[in-house]
Amino acid sequence: MINVRYNNTLNLPKTTFPMRGNLSIKEPIRLNKWKQSEIYKKLRQDRKGCKKFILHDGPPYANGHIHIGHAVNKILKDIIIKSKNLEGCDSWYVPGWDCHGLPIELNILKNNNGKFLTSNKIMLYCRKYVEKQIYSQKVDFIRLGILGDWDNAYRTMDFINQAGIIRSLSAIVKKGYVFRGLKPVNWCFQCSSALAESEVDFLEKVSESIDVAFFCIDNYKLVKNFGVNNCIEKPIEVVSWTTTPWSIPANQAIHVLAFCIYVLVDVGVKFILLAEQLVENCLNRYQLNGKIIAKTFGKELEKVRLKHPLHNIDAFYDRITNIYIADYIAIKTGTGIIHASPAYGEDDFIVYSNLQYNENMLKLVKSNGFYIKYLSVFGGQLIWIANSEIINNLNNRIIAKELILHSYMYCWRHKNPLIKMATSQWFVGMDVGKISLRKKALDCLKNVKVYPSSGKTRLYHMISNRPDWCISRQRSWGVPIPFFIKKKGVYCTNV
Ligand SMILES: [Zn+2]
Predict the structure, then answer these.
(1) Which terminus in the chain has less CB density within 10 A, N or C?
(2) How much distance in Å is there from the Cα of 373 to the middle of ligand 1?
């Protein structure tokens, strides 16, 4: 066999470059040289007066070591900055860090027996922790060869930035956009806090859906409103469809549409009340044969009294639920009749607030997702676990039960399902005040260039579809809202 030296068969250029990269040794030497010669500073001096190209970085979160995602992100940005400098631009890279938020606070609480820490201590520990995180991430970014003004990176926790946030808040308050309100917000049990709309992801979820029958106790009034008088010898049940059985204990009303036609259906042993459009679909699901005996508009059903469906398991549930008129119901699925628990549904709450039911709103779920201890039968249970027990206790009140796959809201951080929960929060009202903030923001967006343009569409939808923005959180590590509360009005500190 002939011993061939293949390198002799290649036509390679003759250079002084070494054969091996040896980067683990050479890179630190090169980076050190850049540092000693203040290369970034020199670049600024050389390019002074040239066309500016500034990359103000969307900050990484100051928590944990850098990973491959950071590396890709920072290196791609660095390629752009360096190429723009070579093109002749005065191209800056402004690094920074996002310092606030729950993961940092949870870390501090976990490592310092958090139950006993005051807010001041939590903030102090968080600040120290973030400083360490920033230092270690900065060293690693520089090691990647990223050129930038590292000594003057911005940090969201710097007091100058916090003051800027509060100044902006003050301006928004003065324009009348900020209000405090009790209303259902997106609530994460893991965060133990309200979430902004932007912190909510929609994912597919399997839920147990049930059709629950509410006994009517105003049979005579009801049939009279249907224009018939001769059928009160049978029980009448108003059927509501829900995917949140856990909210049944907090039920305070049944909602129907004013100008939708509802029908009384004779199914043999009883009459059931449904929206006309959904009768066929419902009877199929219930595996019942039925005959429509009367029709009327939803508005004729107002204030008909029903029994709470758990009425026979405990005195707490032995109460009346009225039918009220609402305008949000889509007659597409279910029965066209909605069970309402004002503390746990946005639409339920609006109807409750407009009508002032004359009863206190039932708030039965704690911030961690457990029912209050004193709730009859289900007290102290996690709502998701209690779901099946509630279904068992509803027993013969359930006409149909099935699993459905639907789009449901999740915490973007914890990936766990959220609920709507009425709590007192601060909001920036997108459509309050003299000029709609939403309209103004959308008008301004038209003149902003976004690359790629899909980002602009996303931002447009985010602004146009999100209602009032919840700005308060029930946590310590963040920028505090410095309000003094008077019984009437809101006052913001001047800074
Ligand atoms: Zn969460």
Answers:
(1) N
(2) 23
pTM, 2 dp = 0.69
Assign domain 32-157 to a CATH class.
alpha beta
Centroid of ligand 1 to alpha carbon of 413 (angstroms): 5
pLDDT tier at 494 (50, 70, 90 boundaries)?
Answer: very low
Specify the CATH superfamily of domain 200-411.
Answer: Valyl/Leucyl/Isoleucyl-tRNA synthetase, editing domain (3.90.740.10)
Q: How many CA atoms lie within 13 A of 210 on its CB side?
A: 23
Q: Exposed/middle/buried for 183, CB within 10 Å: 0-12, 13-18, 19+? A: buried
CATH number of the 177-197+416-493 domain: 2.170.220.10
Instruction: Name the CA radius of gyration of the chain, rounded.
Output: 31
Spacing, Cα 189 to ligand 1 middle (Å)? 7
pLDDT (tens digit, 9 = 90+) per residue, 104-142? 998 998 888 777 889 999 999 999 999 999 999 999 999
